[in-house]
Design brief:
- The chain has 24 helices and 17 strands.
- Helix 9 (207-224) packs antiparallel against helix 10 and helix 18 packs antiparallel against helix 22 (615-627).
- The strands form 3 sheets. The chain has a 7-stranded antiparallel beta sheet with strand order 2-1-15-12-11-10-9. A 5-stranded antiparallel beta sheet has the order 3-4-5-7-6, covered by helices on one side. The protein has a 5-stranded antiparallel beta sheet with strand order 8-17-16-13-14.
- The protein starts with a strand and ends with a strand.
């Protein structure tokens, strides 16, 4: 079992991460390695035999995690291009790279300081050398390099190369220029790479990307080596033929591309001179033919503006509006609390009762001057002596009046006035406490809902990478079934998992139909999908498909009531599309009142978790519901574990719950410490932690009644049952029956419940 923050093993052992987690950890290293290669190409590339802007431009423009590896690759490319000879141009470029890297480290996310540092260093050093014996050519070329590098860096800052567009074209230009300057006899790797890239785009039906790439890459080839102008013309003709005549059809696209390439080259060059260029272009076509078919699945072009643009715009607008509502609710809660803190406090004590008796009875009495001025001390002492009588009985009799008040000429009226004043004082105090509790509950609800909306806004703002071709295929499938979807989106999340959301007019599906739909949609998306989650609201039905996780959860639970058949413990066990959820709530006390609190807490928590709330936010809202449920004191513990079935990451949350037990690698461990239950305080005093579980591991949640004889025997029993591979239902029954026998011996009956979850490999 591993506890995270950094998934560290509790016993010092190193655990194997899941494949998806390993992919997520390797992605940053792959990005940096790619940045080194791109930087090397930028340092190697030379335009028109004199200009070298790409190394510095890429260093200025790439993301914060990639600019340093890119600069290292660019420096290596500069040195190797001159075969180790350090010219003045190379020296200026190396110093400019160092200055740009230093500026980006000191002032991250700032483009202008880095551009001034890098381009200024390049131009300044060239000027110093030009004033010597190097002439003005070095200064002119370096100034041109600086201007082009600043433009390249600015373009990459505005258009990230990770997304198709200008940024990708700039990186492709650097790679094409670097490869275009390399020739081995008839063979040109630049022509091969450009032909492969353009043909692949045509096979994927991305005709606009292919045509724009052909123009830019052809220009890069010509700038690197003017002798490749013929090849650039031939590749342009080939791309135009393939993109117009047969986009998205692999065999026809290949034929159209080959015919266009031959025609374009032969129109410019005689057959003898064209042979080498055609040989390199054929090499690029061969590379595409060897690629897996899944890499060349047609994808519809995504225009910058047009019919498809409003979908992400709507998501961004909805995310912004949710965030605005969340901020408004949070601000409202803060304003209510601030106003309450600024109001003057009523410091009403028993002295208010004395003052009210004076104002209602003694003010018009003939002995007022004597009692309240001449004998003020004795009168106040007598009034204070009434306090314990009023607090105990709520009233006072004439015979109970203390000696200091025996001189009163209206003893019966004094007793009645004292009783009425004390009753009014107590009611005012109770109303003040109640209003403060209501204010606390109101602001707590506002704050919790605001945080929940903020989380939903963040999730909506990260919808994942869209896959338009698969989305259109899924939409066509449902249209063929006679249920054209109103919305259909297939996306990839950050870990490469496929998700599909299909919104239809209100429709009912049987379990068999849902399973069949999962199989058909999975076949279209080339993934194994789970049975979809069905959401229905306002005449619409939404099917949420998710890729089948690596793990599956098996649940088991058992319970025994302390008296009768009603238990105050409640269990909820279910699986959301990506996680297994297990909840155990223990109502305070035993019997029917405790059962009401326990079931209310468990049911509300389950509904909030299914709606996307986190455990902490759900606990805050349930805490308010229990506090306001009735005038009687209400409370319930919350014991929750949520396991990500893709990665095995488990999140535990406990509020007043008994310790739980986790089994990982055959070893058992108790988790959790004593805290107050929900519904007792204005806030929730809960504990959260993150652990890592794998297939074969167990999670056991128990109520405090099961631990009446200690936790040692429970840990041993859980470890033995896990070693024997017992089913969760059997383990829960064993724990409850054994605890019931032990509780009968101690004579301290309580509700006993055990909830068990076991992870298995997904079939």
């Amino acid at each position: 079992m591993t506890e995270r923050m950094g998934v560290l093993s509790s016993d010092g052992r190193c655990l194997q991460p899941s494949p998806l987690a390993a992919r997520a950890m390797l992605r940053p290293a792959a990005r940096r390695l790619a940045a080194v290669g791109i930087g090397f190409a930028g340092g190697w590339a030379v335009l028109y035999g004199a200009l070298m802007p790409f190394g510095l431009g890429l260093t200025l423009g790439l993301a914060e995690d990639c600019f340093a590896p890119c600069a290292a690759g660019a420096a290596l490319g500069l040195l190797l291009h001159g075969l180790g000879a350090l010219s003045l141009r190379s020296l200026c470029q190396l110093c400019a790279l160092g200055a740009a890297v230093a500026a980006r480290w000191l002032l991250p996310q700032k483009f202008v300081p880095a551009a001034l540092a890098g381009c200024g260093t390049l131009t300044g050093m060239a000027l110093c050398f030009a004033l010597g014996s190097s002439g003005a050519d070095l200064l002119l070329y370096s100034a041109a390099d600086a201007l082009l590098a600043a433009a390249i860096g600015f373009g990459l800052r505005k258009f990230a190369p990770e997304r198709p567009g200008m940024g990708t074209l700039l990186v492709g230009t650097a790679v094409a220029a670097a490869l275009g300057s390399v020739r081995w006899g008839w063979f040109s790797p630049g022509v091969l790479a450009c032909a492969a890239a353009e043909l692949a785009l045509c096979c994927r039906a991305q005709k606009f990307a292919a045509l724009s790439g052909s123009a830019v890459l052809g220009a890069a080839l010509c700038a690197a080596d003017p002798a490749l102008a013929t090849a650039a013309a031939g590749l342009g003709c080939a791309t135009a033929a393939a993109a117009v005549l047969a986009p998205g059809r692999r065999v026809e696209t290949l034929a159209a591309y080959a015919g266009g390439c031959v025609s374009g080259v032969l129109c410019v060059q005689p057959p003898g001179n064209a042979f080498g260029l055609l040989f390199s272009a054929c090499g690029g076509m061969a590379v595409v033919c060897l690629l897996p078919g899944g890499w060349l699945v047609p994808v519809a072009d995504t225009p910058q503006s047009g019919e498809n643009a409003p979908a992400p715009a709507r998501s961004a607008a909805a995310s912004t509006r949710l965030e605005a509502v969340a901020q408004s609710l949070s601000s409202l809660a803060e304003t209510v609390n601030a106003v309450y803190e600024g109001l003057p406090r009523r410091r009403e004590g028993f002295r208010w009762v004395i003052d009210n008796v004076h104002d209602t009875l003694c003010f018009n009495c003939g002995r007022r001057e004597t009692c309240w001025k001449q004998e003020y001390t004795a009168t106040m002492a007598g009034m204070e002596a009434l306090r314990p009588l009023l607090e105990q009985n709520g009233s006072v009799e004439t015979a109970q009046l203390p000696g200091e008040l025996s001189r009163c000429i209206h003893p019966a009226a004094l007793c009645a006035a004292a009783g009425r004043s004390f009753a009014l004082y107590r009611s005012r105090k109770e109303a003040r406490i109640h209003s403060e509790a209501m204010r606390t509950a109101l602001t707590e609800q506002y704050s919790a809902v605001a945080e929940a909306l903020g989380v939903l806004s963040e999730q909506l703002g990260r919808p994942g990478d869209p896959e338009p071709y698969k989305s259109s295929r899924v939409a066509e499938f449902f249209t063929g079934l006679g249920a054209p979807p109103q919305e259909c989106a297939v996306t990839l999340d950050d870990l490469g998992r496929t998700h599909a959301a299909v919104t239809l007019p209100r429709t009912r599906f049987t379990p068999q139909e849902l399973a069949a739909l999962a199989g058909e949609v999975g076949h279209i998306c080339r993934r194994t999908l789970e049975v979809p989650q069905v959401l229905s609201c306002k005449g619409m039905t939404t099917l949420l498909f998710s890729e089948r996780p690596a793990l599956r959860a098996v649940f088991g639970a058992a319970s025994a009531a302390a008296r009768g058949e009603v238990s105050g413990d409640a269990v909820q066990q279910f699986c959301s599309p990506t996680a297994a959820q297990m909840i155990l709530c223990d109502g305070m006390g035993t019997g029917r009142p405790a059962a009401v609190d326990g079931n209310l807490a468990a049911e509300l928590t389950a509904r909030l978790l299914k709606a996307g709330f986190t455990a902490e936010l759900a606990a805050r809202l349930v805490n308010v519901a229990l506090a306001l449920k009735s005038e009687d004191e209400s409370g319930a513990t919350l014991d929750l574990i949520s396991v990500d079935l893709y990665t095995g990451t488990a999140r535990l949350f406990k509020a007043g719950a008994a310790p739980g037990f986790l089994v990982h690698g055959g070893r058992v461990r108790a988790v959790g410490e004593a805290t107050l239950p929900m519904g007792v305080l204005g806030g929730v005093n809960g504990q959260s932690r993150v652990v890592h579980l794998t297939a074969g591991d167990y999670a056991v949640l128990v109520s405090d009644g099961l631990l009446v004889d200690g936790a040692g025997w429970v840990a041993k029993q859980v470890e033995l049952s896990a070693a024997a591979g017992d089913a969760p239902e059997k383990l829960a029954e064993t724990l409850v029956q054994t605890a019931r026998i032990r509780a009968q011996k101690t004579g301290r009956p309580d509700d006993i419940t055990a909830a068990v979850l076991r992870l298995e490999k997904s079939g």
